[in-house]
Write a structure and sequence with these properties.
This protein has 2 helices and 33 strands. The chain is mostly beta strands and about 475 residues long. It has 2 domains: about 5-340, 5 Propeller (Tachylectin-2, Chain A); about 350-475, Jelly Rolls.
Length: about 475
């Protein structure tokens, strides 16, 4: 694995020619995806600036252009008419001013009064590498490029650690105010959320206080990417706690969880209805963000990074890594979030093929359990049925266990290669989306989901199934991979 110097990681992109050869080289990769947003070069991580504006969906991702390494971060901009077909739009935000001289870090967007406004964390570092995070904004111009405000909206608070980032902006009609939720860390290294408020979107911001979440005062060492949304009259708080191990999650210290409850903006208190739940039970799902301004009180649209901080993946050897999940529709059912693939994804179905043990590299699978017993569904096996990504459903415990240790390309073994996806109801249906280096599993019409990277070799495109019936569709591409910088 390449050892990157600080100078290499934080090199400034001077123009398209700096990465044109790298772009051409990674196009030959067997793991470039066909219907997931992925980096044109280098590394993609958190989704940012996700919003519907004047009929177009806007989405950015954190991007380091030089390779599969966390270094100088840009926002790369993509757009879509339908959340299914995506096209590259070029750099959205570049680290080109004093306040973000070492990176334009994660944030959000909102469409308001005819303008699309982006909010991000400006990562400033002094010569001695001391970090100062600023909360900054930019407005989308007529040329589809964001224009930064000259100065930040506000700087960091010195009564918390330097970890203050990922502004999520929401409008509360009842209060007549905008609120910014900032992922943060206390001086004694506890995860928390800071809240700012203003009657104006681009001025007048003042500190309101720290979010209180009873029972979660010492839950993790940093809360990244906070997101709050009201669905069908219930408030949902989603965040990514770091620096902590959670039961049943192996050695991972990075997670994505949610709480359903009630948000009181007078007391800045979110009161949960019950314990936290995992947003996704897979190995590789993090920094989920919801789309703003969709105008539907009964649902949200969510997207996440297929990956985890500090983890490493096989395509790093090819100088690229990362992708974003499929956008998901979120609703509340029986007191929990239900995540389903977007309506309309069926438009990507090309040909349906006979279930004869062969697995296309780009496909959708629909498994229907044949009864109330156990199910064994093994993907990416060798021709003799050995190895692969192995899913076992135990009907007695209503639990799916996914094990990727049988794959030829193994990675992040120390973090763990086996995880469970618990279900409340008996398994009846699985819908699986496979795209070259990822698999997204939706159980029982979205009751639970499981997302994982997987890197099959040429001999690993078979499957075995006991306990169900299977339909298979090859899928058409829906993401352009044009070289636009």
């Amino acid at each position: 694995m390449k050892e990157w110097t600080r100078e290499e990681r934080y090199r400034v992109l001077q123009g398209p020619e700096d990465i044109r050869d790298l772009y051409a080289r990674i196009q030959t990769s067997a793991y470039r995806q066909r219907y997931h947003v992925q980096p044109i070069t280098g590394l993609s991580s958190d989704p940012n600036g996700f919003a519907l504006h004047k009929g177009t969906w806007h989405l950015c991702y954190q991007w380091c252009p030089w390779g599969a390494v966390h270094g100088l971060k840009y926002w790369y901009h993509v757009t879509s008419p339908d959340l299914i077909h995506w096209q590259n739009a070029g750099i959205g935000l570049a680290p080109d001013c004093f306040y973000d001289n070492r990176g334009t870090h994660s944030g959000s967007a909102i469409s308001q009064d005819g303008e699309l406004v982006f909010f991000y964390t400006g990562n400033h570092r002094d010569e001695d590498w001391t970090r100062t995070p600023y909360t900054c904004a930019a407005v989308l111009g007529e040329d589809n490029r964001p224009r930064k405000l000259e100065k930040p909206l506000f700087g960091p608070r010195d009564d918390h650690s330097e970890h203050q980032r990922d502004p999520k902006v929401v409008w509360n009609k009842e209060k007549g105010k905008y609120y910014i939720f900032i992922g943060a860390q206390t001086l004694d290294k506890r995860g928390c959320v800071l809240i700012y408020e203003s009657e104006q979107l681009l001025s007048g911001w003042r500190f309101a206080g720290e979010l209180k979440v009873p029972g979660y005062e010492a839950f993790g060492g940093m809360w990244e990417c906070p997101y709050i949304v009201n669905i069908s009259g219930r408030d949902v708080l989603i965040f990514s706690p770091q620096y902590t191990k959670l039961p049943g999650r192996g050695e991972s210290t990075n997670h994505n969880v949610y709480l359903i409850g009630t948000m009181d903006y007078d007391t800045l208190t979110f009161t949960p209805d019950g314990p936290y739940r995992h947003l996704d039970y897979g190995f590789d799902f993090y920094a989920a963000q919801g789309a703003a301004s969709i105008g539907d009180p009964d649902r949200a649209i969510l997207i996440a990074w297929i990956g985890l901080p500090d983890n490493h993946y096989p395509t790093e050897e090819e100088d690229w890594e990362g992708s974003l999940s499929l956008p998901r529709e979120l609703r509340i059912r029986d007191g929990k979030l239900v995540q389903t693939p977007l309506p309309g994804l069926e438009v990507l179905r090309d040909t349906q093929i006979a279930p004869e043990g062969k697995l296309p590299a780009v496909c959708e699978l629909e498994l229907t359990a044949s009864g109330d017993g156990d199910v064994d569904f093994n993907l990416f096996t060798r021709a003799d049925g050995t190895g692969g990504l192995r899913l076992h459903y135990d009907s007695a415990s209503k639990r799916c266990t996914v094990d990727r240790s049988g794959m030829d390309k193994r990675f992040n073994q120390a973090v763990g290669e086996t995880l469970d996806m618990p279900l409340d109801a008996p398994l009846k249906k699985l819908r699986v989306f496979i795209d070259r280096c990822s698999a997204e599993i939706f159980a029982n019409d979205g009751e639970a989901t499981f997302t994982t990277h997987v890197y099959p070799t040429e001999r690993e495109f078979n499957y075995t199934l006991n306990g169900g019936e299977l339909k298979i569709w090859k899928l058409k591409p829906s993401v352009t991979d044009e070289f636009i910088v």
